[in-house]
Amino acid sequence: MSSSSSSPTSELPLKPIPGNYGLPFFGPLMDRLNYFYFQGEEKFFQDKINKHNSTIFKTNMPPGPFIASNPKVTAVLDAISFSVLLDTSKVEKLNVLDGTFLPSLSFTGGYRVCAYLDPSEPNHSSLKSFFLSLLAKKHDQFIPLFRTCLSELFIDIEEQMSKEGEAYFNTLGDSMAFNFFFRLFCDKSPVDAQIGSKGPKLFDKWLFLQLAPLVTLGLPKFLNLAEDLLLHTFPLPSVLAKSDYQKLYDAFNNYSDSILDEAEKFGIKRDEACHNLVFLAGFNAYGGSKTLFPALIKWVGLAGPKLHRQLADEIRTIVKAEGGVTFSSLDKMVLTKSVVYEALRIEPPVPYQYGKAKADMVVNSHDAAFEIKKGEMIFGYQPLATKDPRVFENPEEFVGNRFLGEGEKLLKYVYWSNGRETAEPTADNKQCPGKNLVLLLCRVMLVELFLRYDTFTIEAGKLFLGSSATFKSLTKATSI
Ligand code: HEM
Q: Which domain of life is it from (predicted)?
């Protein structure tokens, strides 16, 4: 198997990219309706793969008219070709965070924040270096602060279980994640910073208005066209989130003084740094957690009591031997680590990636090579790449120990952080600077869960952004 996505000396047959974009306006519109309503995203892609007998093909991607001026993309939907999107020497990542459209900059104080910048822009390097140094400085707070937030979360979950017989994880998990990131960056609880418990709702509205062109609410069929007109045809006005955003901005501006002082040393203007910090906390960190944590709980919950017992054994034995939950003890929990990678593989929290070809290039799938021209938009639907049956055995199955031992070799095909799991974020690439923090938080979440409980059951559902998980039972730990 070739490990490179593109190679001029490829021995695979060079083929024209199959597929077409249809008539102007009507082609993109049909693709949008198929994607959201008639087929749904997985079937939309799978049908085109089957039709063209290729994991690389041309298609339109939503939203199309009138939000995106050019919806035409080349889709790369296998583990090999997808990796071209991770190579910033080949693709330009300017304004492509949300795909073929850029939400109004009024959502971000008039600034193009870090996630919209290509590494060739000088601002990207200063902002990303600043974030990496900020996270390094906060490193010692990660474990104790997150454990405190998790203790509060489990109290809330148990309280809801005893009152209602079940506990909806998503809302409680969102509050926990908001609290954690706010306290990490502002050194204050949101309650002491005039935000109270409203933080998640403020960010939710702001996120929804930006991401509406990419979501469907799953309403009854007769409302589909009305929803399409409302969410996917014209951008929703940023003014609807203006006062919510201002509250969040003011809180960060008031309470993260030392962070903003530090940003100025990186040559970043104070207000630009603060808008970037709000985006980092609200879109990247809180937004990412919103889909990640419920998916983790869902998959581990559905995996059942055998895996729960193995995790509890590993976690309790190592915590006891090491005398606590530390970076070193977490590092020794090989099964826990593998389970976290597997959750990130089977349901990557950010499923779409885009990049514009920087030059003419050849991109390989498993079976053929295709020429992509400079300036063309390349799009990857990550779940198909990380569930590629030619790389992962039983790709649709959650296999907790998949990445143990020899399985570690497959980590290079885990792409959730917009980079290979074996690579690290730098100022010159577009990999998530929160990568290692995110892995740590997932591990600590499992540690806290299995220090407290022997097993649990979950009812899973689907939301417009990711999965939902509802605790149906929790069995308290019998031995520690
Ligand atoms: C919680 C789960 C998280 C997930 C799933 C996630 C995922 C991602 C992904 C996929 C990207 C690349 C987007 C693209 O360009 O296509 C990204 C970028 C980014 N993430 Fe994360 N992230 C998470 C948490 C965090 C955290 C905790 C931070 C910081 C504290 C963070 C900061 C950023 C920043 C600043 C970027 C832009 C990087 C750049 O422009 O080079 N993220 N993240």
A: Eukaryota
- CA gap 274, 295 in Å, rounded: 30
User: Residue type for 363, please?
Assistant: V
Domain that holds residue 60: 14-476
Residue-wise pLDDT for 94-139, tens only, equals 999 999 999 999 999 999 999 999 999 999 999 999 999 999 999 9
- Beta strand 72-76 with 377-381 is parallel
CATH number at residue 75: 1.10.630.10
Does any domain span residue 123? yes
Distance from the alpha carbon of residue 433 to the mean position of ligand 1, in angstroms: 6
Give the burial class of 215: count Cβ atoms within 10 A of its Cβ; 0-12 exposed, 13-18 middle, 19 or more buried: middle
47 C-alpha to ligand 1 centroid (Å)? 30
Residue ranges with strand state E in 178-231 = none
- The dihedral sign for the CA sequence 50, 54, 60, 61: positive
Mean pLDDT of 178-203: 97
- The Cα 13–Cα 54 span in angstroms is 13
- Whether 93 lines ligand 1, by a CB cut-off of 6 Å, is yes
Strands of the sheet containing 467-476, edge to edge, are 167-168, 467-476, 453-462
Domain membership of residue 33 (yes or no) is: yes
Residue whose CA is closest, atom 17 of ligand 1? 432
Q: Can you tell me the distance from the alpha carbon of 116 to that of 98, in angstroms, rounded to the nearest whole number? A: 9
In the reported structure, the alpha carbon of residue 160 is separated from the centroid of ligand 1 by a whole-number distance in angstroms of 31
Element (H, E) at 135: helix 122-164
Q: Are 349 and 291 contacting, i.e. CB atoms less than 8 angstroms apart? A: yes
Tell me how far apart the alpha carbons of residues 213 and 404 are, in angstroms, rounded to a whole number.
Answer: 39
Compute the distance from residue 327 Cα to the ligand 1 centre, in Å.
Answer: 22
* 1 within a domain of the structure (yes/no): no
* In a domain? residue 58: yes
pLDDT at 8: 46
Domain count, the chain: 1
Handedness of CA 304, 310, 313, 317 (dihedral sign): negative
Q: Is 295 in the pocket of ligand 1 (CB under 6 A)?
A: no
Give the pLDDT mean for 427-447: 98
Per-residue DSSP letters for 50-63? HHHTSSEEEEE-SS
Nearest CA to ligand 1 atom 20: 432
